[in-house]
Amino acid sequence: MKIEVSEKKELPKDFVKIVFDLKVPESRFSVGKNGEETLVVKTSEKKDINRRKFILLCRQIVQEAKKHRVKKIAVDFSDLNFKSVNKKAEEIAEIAAENFEMANYEFVKYKTKPKEGWNFVEEIRIIAEKNNLKNIDKGIEKGKIVGEETNACREIANMPGGDMTPAVLVQEIGSAIQNTSIKMKVLEVAEMKKLGMGGILGVSRGSAEKPKFIILEYMQSRKEKPIVFIGKGITFDTGGLNVKPENYMSEMHMDMSGGAAVAHAMISAAKLGIKKKIVGLIPAAENMPSGESYRPGDILKTISGKTIEIANTDAEGRVVLADAHGYAERYNPKLVVNIATLTGAAGVALGERASALFSKSDRTADKIFELAEVAGDPVWQLPLWDEYKNDIKGNFGDVANMRSNGDPRYGGAIHAAMFLLEFAEKFPEWAHLDIGPRDTVNPDELLSKGASGVGVRLLVKILEKL
């Protein structure tokens, strides 16, 4: 989609002007006496339009345009009061472009193209005063990059598990990083065995698809230590021998959403020219039941030397991430951020409105919380108290991958985070984002069904600001 800024002057005839109105019961398309076409969009009270509502308004504009099959629209945000939204015109334009792109996306890869063509908005003009054109143009450019990469994350997360295997994920990421400064290396089974990655090798044993350990490096700073992002890349999760109920399995092709978010946040950073050292680690595997599968009761030895007692094969994400945390130590990172669709328990705790945030550093957690609000990827912090540590002690291994001391139904998101913390002790700053509650779009978000692209925008803000 083309997004541009232009001065306040007569628009080309094929553009439809957006008009904001508090009083209309619903949005409507109309043609004036002079032939000017307008799309009236219902808004909140102008004084009530905060950042969250502005994000939704931008998406609503595109959704209404699509409903009326309008291809080109013009928006003048000076009609609204933005005192509670932003500080700069550039920021407004960034938010707008980002969310215009996200609202225009639909997963149509497997659909037959209709005779009349796909119903997408083709062009948006943001109308502005002459003295703001340069700043708004800069904001549009940045917002478009992050919005497009969020959609690219959604695209690969939406792909069915039969088509999105670990090997295909490698191909997709390899193609996406072309023409950037990101370098990719992929560890195969033989190399993982040599390194002692018993976690990812154990989880992947039941699948005919071989696991891949994807390493992305973007080294654009000479002095500082790197930031390491770790993203779960389970391309399909049946639960293994502890097989999931049928109604919990259909969306498990999106269990690699964390890995997709890491890849496309790094691609965003490269396109935005962020001057930092960034490493992305994505352990990619399938968790399948077969005669070769790892079993409840197995003991797996990780790259760090710590052993994992398998209490439940459906708690596989934390097991593959344990090896990724061990591998991250070689970079001597200043910050490690883990992002994963790790637990359903996080959704039970928080609903579908926020990802769960964990960190032993309140300073880091507070900053990520603030950046999440700015990014539009909201989070809420849950505790990592020492008292929870005893709950995941293994009876025969160092740690158990499910609560071993007490009822595993309670505190599942916390116990998963406590498990990961066991493998993150050497990092000066560490945070874990359980995006299980937010990996799919809920209707209030005004986005098309499927993967939400959660995490891309937040990880970019972390790179910019933290």
Please provide a written account of the structure.
The strands form 3 sheets. Strands 7, 8, 9, 10, 11, 14, 15, 16 and 18 form a 9-stranded mixed beta sheet that branches. Strands 1-6-5-2-4-3 form a 6-stranded mixed beta sheet, with helices on one face. It starts with a strand and ends with a helix. The longest helix has 26 residues, at 133-158. α10 (362-375) packs across α12. Helix content is 32%, strand content 20%. The protein is an alpha/beta fold and 466 residues long. It has 2 domains: 2-144, Leucine Aminopeptidase, subunit E, domain 1, CATH 3.40.220.10; 159-465, Zn peptidases (Aminopeptidase), CATH 3.40.630.10.
Kindly list the characteristics that best describe this protein.
6-stranded mixed beta sheet, 12 helices, Leucine Aminopeptidase, subunit E, domain 1, 466 residues, 18 strands, Aminopeptidase, alpha/beta, 9-stranded mixed beta sheet
H-E string: EEEEHEHEHHEHHEEEHEEEHEHEHEEHEH
CATH topology of the largest domain: Aminopeptidase
What is the CATH architecture term of the largest domain?
3-Layer(aba) Sandwich
Number of domains: 2
Helix content: 25-40%
Q: By CATH's scheme, which homologous superfamily of the largest domain applies?
A: Zn peptidases
Radius of gyration: 23 Å
Task: Describe the secondary structure blueprint for this structure.
Layout: E1 2-7, E2 16-21, E3 28-31, E4 37-42, H1 51-67, E5 72-75, H2 89-104, E6 123-128, H3 133-158, H4 166-176, E7 183-187, H5 189-195, H6 198-203, E8 212-219, E9 227-231, E10 233-237, H7 257-272, E11 277-287, E12 299-301, E13 307-309, H8 317-328, E14 335-340, H9 345-350, E15 355-358, H10 362-375, E16 379-381, E17 399-400, H11 412-421, E18 430-434, H12 456-465
Parallel strand pairs: 1-6, 2-4, 2-5, 5-6, 9-11, 9-14, 10-11, 13-17, 14-18, 15-16
Antiparallel strand pairs: 3-4, 7-8, 8-11, 12-13, 15-18
